[in-house]
Amino acid sequence: MKKKRILSLIVAATLGASLIACGNTSSGEVKEGSDKISAANAGEVIELTNVSYDPTRELYVAYNELFAKHYQEEFGKTVDVTQSHGGSGKQALEVANGLEADVVTLALEGDVQVVADAGLIDDGFTSEFDVDSSPYTSTIVFLVRSGNPKKIYDWNDLIRKDVGVITPNPKTSGGAMWNYLAAWYYFEQQGQSEKEILDSIKKLYANVVVLDSGARGATTSFVENKQGDVLIAWENEAFLSLQEYPGEYEIVVPSVSILCQPTVAVVDEVAKKHGTEDVAKEYLSYLYSDEAQEIEAKNFYRPSTKSIYDKYVFSTDSNTITEVPSDGKWINDNITLTDINHFGGWKKARADHFADGANFDSIYEQ
Fold first, then answer.
1. In this structure, which topology does domain 3-135+261-303 adopt according to CATH?
2. pLDDT per residue over 187-227, tens digit each?
3. Greatest CA separation found in the chain?
């Protein structure tokens, strides 16, 4: 693994472990409400904790630096942001069970809802910020080895007996839920009945070599440990692999996929306790600024601002990407995307597919 990825993982893992081990504290020990308000009023460092999911590590390293500069210039105060990363579902449970996050930036609305259901986030969080509180989006693609030796071009290739698949576990990873739903949509579009779709999904998961707890762990299994023939990946994870290992991997864009909408929210009860409500709201609002949208695009997330999104779109008839384009235009719009509404929203999708005893449990034998 290259030094920058190693350093990123070590730092993130250390911070995450520190947060989890401390339970109701963050690294450096979060001050209790009145003390933290006093610190902010005195012009001291304001501590903010962002609990996020696996593939946003690099994005938030860059964004936190930008935001700290913005907040200092705009409000004359210093903000120090602590990051925590892991499988989105696991992160949501950690926050619901006491990990004190001022904000969450998770892989999907359903994971944020878990925190809301614990009484920590006020109702209506998807309306608090623009575009359903989703400042950037992504989609699901395939990462294969250079030359695509197994000739993997679409979802139906993943159920061949000679193909080893790497994907995370939907029980712990939000990205894994998107992966599963994208595959489901493909087989549905092929005209399969629900019984036939379940059979196809079962064949796909029978080919899974490693079922990691999160998306970054799955990337490590495929890229570093050389396991499997194809990684079902967040688009940004796939591009990071192309960037860090030029000539070793290729991205295959399937014919259909799903629009992934990571969701952000202020953890209202914790922010009130810490006296960080205003800075937490500004932290998430600023994700929609032009400066932040550019950072999101440069980290291979699809920005929500159309004018910035359009700057990164390129035209192609090929569904294979062998390198990061030198002109920075990396967004391939030559793909049909469904969204979570096709599955009745996250509440229904969870009940149908990911709850105990639901479809995923019925097709995946532990």
1. D-Maltodextrin-Binding Protein; domain 2 (3.40.190)
2. 999 999 999 999 999 999 999 999 999 999 999 999 999 99
3. 64
